[in-house]
Write a structure and sequence with these properties.
350 residues; alpha/beta; Rossmann fold; Mannitol-specific EII, Chain A; 2 domains; 11 helices; 12 strands; 22% strand
Length: 350
Amino acid sequence: MNHPPHHDTKHFRIFVASPSDRAEERDIVTILVEELNRTVAAEKNIHLELIKWETHVAPDMGRPQEIINRQIPPCDLFVGIMWNRFGTSTGTFDSGTEEEFNDAYERWKQTGKPRIMFYFRNTPYILNTAEEVEQVRLVLEFKGKLDKWGLTGKYTSVEDFQQKLRSHLINVLHEESDAEKEEKELIRPYFLVGYRVKSKRGAVLTKKGFFSLIVNELRKALTFDTEEVIQRILERENLGSTSCGDGAAIPHAHYMELTHNIVAMVHSDIPIEWDALDQEPARFFSMILIANRRNSISLSLQAFFNHCDKSLIFKNPGALDDPAFLEKYIELFVEKFPFFEYRGIYDIQI
């Protein structure tokens, strides 16, 4: 029996999306949510609420998927499930699951939420009709797109799905609980500054040289261990390039000893090799230094910068040659994140 949540319990909404043939897995999600609400979630004072269209959507007139989208509340976690069937066209997308995912993904790009966990069943299946072949083609095409954007999960049976999802949900609960504790224990002010790096002809900067340059400039206004911060940034870069392509990058790191959470926006005259997929060197950087590893603002910042880089740079060739580009970018940022203390724009001559 589930007890009603206490008034100070944290509520965490989980939305499950899948084609109609994944009924067994959908039932598993329900079972796991009920189980965790009695055990791990209860211990951490978190209440999981499972959101499904069949339980949360009332009858109405109009395009069915639009009705579902309108009535489903925002969620904290999106769980997607597919095997060999993609679903039925909604009139806007090739399936309801795709439309639900697209809505969640667009919100994630804007706000950093919901977290998205998508699972694909990886079990052989005999195709008997042309329609089944087309469904599998759509699934594979969709999975290929998601694999480019993030990390998907796979499972081989309903039992395997249950085991993996239980483990993943428990990890999510631990992260949510730890994040709440750390947010209470570790509150740091937010600091924003802009830099223009101006160079003499022939000047060259490496990644490490760039990080050293900017971090030492930040050190003039804030107190922290310069070498340790540079090392943290380089360790993150070694995991994979933070390039967004088209001359932009989002280097970032976490360091508990920071007195401030920092964003430094840098427009450089010097192109810097950044191991980008498009082979383009970087000239615009949104550097994020966050004290709390689980600070939710970190994801929101990365989502914002990724979106703005695509809007302001990718779609406007030559944008980085605009002398006022940095001011325009900062103006958008301050409008989105007004709690940052803005210190102005400074020129660095090398």
